[in-house]
Known about the structure:
With 99 residues, this protein is an alpha+beta fold. Helix content is 57%, strand content 18%.
Amino acid sequence: MNPMQQMMMQAQRMQRELAKAKAALAEQEFKVSKGGMVELTMKGDRTVAALSIDEAAIDPENKEMLEETIAMAINEALEQINAANDEIEEKITGKTNLF
């Protein structure tokens, strides 16, 4: 087998490993809790699996604070997913995704 064939086989193996790891990531759950007010579970495919809001946090006077807390929980979950994705990329390809 020549070096070019070996390189192509290695690239194909890497693609299969990456696809398998990304499929597993899509099913993984990432949980975030913000001050006991908001609990969010997001799957690795970036879909919200669950959102729980403490009843005490539902106050018309604190609407903006609740909205900010939910946004922070979503952003934190997305950061966790992105970090897990970068870890997969680096482990399999040796480099991280720049986007």
